[in-house]
Amino acid sequence: MMGNEARVLALAGVAQTAALVQQLARRGEAQAEPFRWAIRSALVLDSNDVRYILSGCGGVYLGLAQLARPGRAEPASLERLRYGMGLIQLQKNLRRAPRHMARIRERLLALALDPDADGGACGDAIQTLAELYNETLSELKPRIMVQGERRYLESAEVPTQIRALLLAGVRVAYLWHDLGGRKYQLFLHRKAIVGTAGSLLRNQVAT
């Protein structure tokens, strides 16, 4: 996979996380397959293969669909953009917090090796990721303020799922940065990102 395609695939992982967080906060549930792939990606640590980490284009098809749309200044898309930018900033600040980085890696490695974790899909794994988010990333700035329906945000399950997703989103934002992704590209190279995301999405549909 070419460098630009790899970066866009990783950026699609960030966009997918933002969309899933919004779904949970606004509807109380998220699309099952994208959610499962997003959580799984947090547990793949010792690989530089972006396709493997994100389960290929199929693993982030929701995020690719988000990126392939021309930008529109509507509340829902601006909300997703805010979440995505927050994840990108959090990964940057995580790089300056080696103690938190070591803690995250230690816990994720243990979870990845746990035969009961089921690739991150089981409830215990999601709970562990949420707790890890609280112990580490929630202490960094910026705090990602999730907006949605009060009955969902105050439920027992949805906040846990959101925190697990946010940790997975920071992990993929970290990957995007390692692949050469930078904030300015989101604005100066917007047209190229839209085109590459559309091409990757069409290739996924064709296969």
Layout of strands and helices, then pairs:
Blueprint: H1 3-27, H2 32-41, H3 50-54, H4 56-59, H5 61-68, H6 75-94, H7 98-113, H8 123-135, H9 150-153, H10 158-178, H11 185-188, H12 190-206
Structural commentary:
- α1 packs across α6, α5 crosses α12 and α6 (75-94) crosses α10.
- It contains twelve helices and no strands.
- The chain has a single domain (3-206), classed as HflD-like (YcfC-like).
- The mean pLDDT is 93.
- It has helices at residues 3-27, 32-41, 50-54, 56-59, 61-68, 75-94, 98-113, 123-135, 150-153, 158-178, 185-188, 190-206.
- The chain is 71% helix and 0% strand.
- It is globular and about 40 Å long.
- With 207 residues, the protein is an all-alpha fold.
Number of helices: 12
Q: What percent of residues adopt helix (DSSP H or I)?
A: over 70%
Q: Report mean pLDDT, rounded to a whole number.
A: 93
**Which of globular, elongated, flat, extended, rod-shaped describes the shape?**
globular
CATH class: Mainly Alpha
Largest sheet composition: none
Name of the CATH architecture: Orthogonal Bundle
The CATH superfamily bears the name HflD-like
- Count all strands and give the number: 0
Structural domains: how many: 1
Radius of gyration: 16 Å
Contiguous runs where pLDDT drops below 50 for at least 5 residues: none
What is the terminal-to-terminal distance?
16 Å
Label the structural class.
mainly alpha
The run of helices and strands is HHHHHHHHHHHH
Strand content: under 5%
CATH topology: YcfC-like
